[in-house]
Amino acid sequence: MASRVLAQCVRTLARSSARLSGGNLAVRAVAAPVSASHRSFSVISNAERRRVLEQSRVSVVSVWCRQYGDLPPLTLETIRDRVMYVLKLYDKVNPEKLQTTSHFMKDLGLDSLDQVEIIMAMEDEFGE
Amino acid sequence: MASSSRTQVIALYRMLIKESSKFPSYNFRTYAIRRIKDGFRENKHVDNPKSMDELLTRARESLALIKRQVSVGQMYSSQRTIVEGFGAR
Questions:
Q1: Distance from CA of A75 to the nearest CA of B (A)
Q2: pTM summary value
Q3: A36 reaches B (C-beta below 8 A)
Q4: Tens-of-pLDDT digits for all 89 residues of chain B?
Q5: Mutate which of B12, B21, B80 to disrupt the A interface (most A C-beta within 10 Å)?
Q6: What are A73-114's pLDDT values in tens digits?
Q7: Element holding B22 (H helix, E strand)
Q8: A96-120 burial code (b ≥16 CB/10 A, e <16)
Q9: A-contacting residues in B 59-88 (Cβ below 8 Å)
Q10: Which of residues 101-120 of A touch B (CB under 8 A)?
Q11: For chain A, how far is it from start to end, CA to CA, in angstroms?
């Protein structure tokens, strides 16, 4: 129960921070040059914001793509990381023994009821 | 029943947890999920088919009860408690 709540909190935080990180950098960058020069407010803020947003977008996601408020792209590594993250949060799983090749029943000692819970946690993580 | 009792038990477990997570009240939700997990785990080793049938019918009745109480709770829901945080379903 606590693990599921924690996972949900982290997921919503990650999503909102991915959208806010561009905005925060832009706000901070806009505040500095506006105090220095006396040009019109809207012109400099738009140019600065667009440049900083593009820069921050490139640094945050290494693929050059436009993000229209969508979830991060699904690659094999992101999927694997999310699956391992959900499994590590499950309290019956020993995080040191966990690998991508570990078998639920033989290596980790889980039974079919735990399997149901893990599958439901995966559905919560990946679908809506 | 065409399906074996093992798959029935797993399907009932899954449906019970899914329905219990729809409770709008924090207390009912956490109690129901905890009680379901503990109840299924302590009867994991039962072999006798008669007692298994009894337990399965009790589980089905609990499932119907949970579904009814979820609808009632959603009709008359109260404020979110502070422990639930954001993103609680």
A1: 25
A2: 0.62
A3: no
A4: 446 888 999 999 999 999 999 999 899 999 999 999 999 999 988 888 899 999 999 999 999 999 999 999 999 888 877 777 665 44
A5: B21
A6: 788 998 999 999 999 988 888 888 888 888 888 888 888 999
A7: none
A8: eeeeeeeeeeeebebeebbebbbeb
A9: 84-88
A10: 111-113, 116-117, 120
A11: 18
Total CB pairs under 8 A between chain A and B: 33
For residue A72, what are the CA distances in angstroms to A55, A75, A86, B20?
A: 17, 9, 17, 30
Would you say B44 and A113 are in contact if contact means Cβ atoms under 8 Å apart? yes
